[in-house]
Design brief:
Elements: E1 3-4, E2 11-12, E3 18-20, E4 27-29, H1 30-33, H2 37-40, H3 48-53, H4 75-83, H5 87-233, E5 235-238, H6 249-259, E6 269-274, E7 287-291, H7 294-310
Length: 321
């Protein structure tokens, strides 16, 4: 490095183009001084600092010199000064003007304060209006949403109405068919009424026959019940006879008759059966013997009574069978 450039304060290398001032011997980069190669190539080159310090020569006779203006007092100004009032009058006017300006300033200040308060109120009202506007906007959004919902509901209701109209058409056709069926049925009913009126006499005769039949049936039923009572009076119940498989009740009855010394023809015993149990028990079923007459029943009962009386220690029981 050869030295430092006085223009950019950066070191000047040996490989860089450089130039020195012939007066101050200052070192400069050629790029920092000028791009004119003719000036850089001059032998007696002076740097800008030395060139600025050199007095310029030449003739200054043609240089314009500015002459100061003179202010002359016009006669009107002196007359105005002579006509002014004294200083006390001016001071009093200034004081009155000052007080007036002070009062005006106070009034303007009060007006400004009132304006400031009004502005604050307006700002508050503006904030409230913004809130109200936001609320109205929300309400408007909700109204729009409700309107959309109502539109959708109307569309659905329209579809339902169309379906209902179609269903009503189907129902009307069915009602028409039912009316036709009712007309047909009414005609049939009228025909049946005519036929029933013709059969009314037959029905009255049948009612008379039915009443006669009811009377006869009741009389026959009473007779049957009487006969049943009579037939029951011919019965004898034999209890506590053990049941056996393939038993012969007629043989058992004959053994009993032989034991009590009663001899009866075979045709006297009409039937001999065991009665069904009404409740579940281990007791043998009762044997019911139906005799031909009440006289035969009394004969057997008296024979049993005589046997038990004659044999008090060996009364009639199932052991004799």
């Amino acid at each position: 490095m050869v030295g430092e450039c006085l223009a950019c304060n950066i070191g000047v290398l040996e490989t860089q183009k450089r130039i020195r001032c012939t007066k101050c011997n200052g070192l400069y980069h050629t790029e920092c001084i000028s791009s004119n190669s003719e000036q850089i190539g001059r032998i007696n080159w002076v740097c800008p600092a030395c060139a600025a310090g050199t007095r310029k020569g030449g003739d200054n006779t043609n240089t314009c010199i500015r002459v100061p203006l003179r202010i002359e007092t016009s006669p009107s100004t002196s007359s105005i000064i002579n006509n002014q009032t004294d200083c006390s009058t001016i001071l009093s006017e200034l004081k009155s003007f000052r007080s007036e300006m002070h009062s005006r300033l106070n009034s303007q200040k009060e007006k400004f304060d009132a304006f400031s308060n009004g502005l604050n109120c307006l700002q508050t009202e503006l904030a409230d209006m913004r809130k109200s506007f936001q609320s109205l906007q929300n309400d408007l959004d909700s109204v729009i949403e409700c309107s959309n919902n109502i539109k959708e509901s109307n569309n659905r209701n329209t579809e339902v109405l169309n379906d209902t109209v179609n269903s009503i058409g189907v129902i009307q056709s069915q009602i028409k068919e039912h009316n036709d069926s009712l007309d047909f049925i009414s005609k049939k009913i009228e025909a049946l009424q005519v036929e029933s009126s013709s059969h009314s006499y037959i029905i009255s005769d049948l009612k008379n026959d039915s009443s006669t039949f009811d009377h006869n049936f009741k009389s026959l039923l009473s007779k049957v019940m009487q006969l049943e009572r009579i037939s029951r009076s011919h019965n004898i119940e034999i209890q506590a006879v053990p049941e056996r498989k393939n038993e012969n009740l007629n043989t058992i009855i004959k053994k009993i008759f032989d034991k009590i010394s009663v001899s009866l023809p075979d045709d006297v015993v009409i039937s001999c059966n065991r009665v069904a149990k009404r409740t579940v028990s281990d007791r043998p079923r009762t044997i019911v013997v139906t005799l031909m007459t009440l006289k035969h029943r009394d004969l057997i009962l008296s024979a049993v009574h005589r046997y038990n009386k004659a044999n008090p220690k060996d009364m009639l029981c199932s052991l004799v069978l």
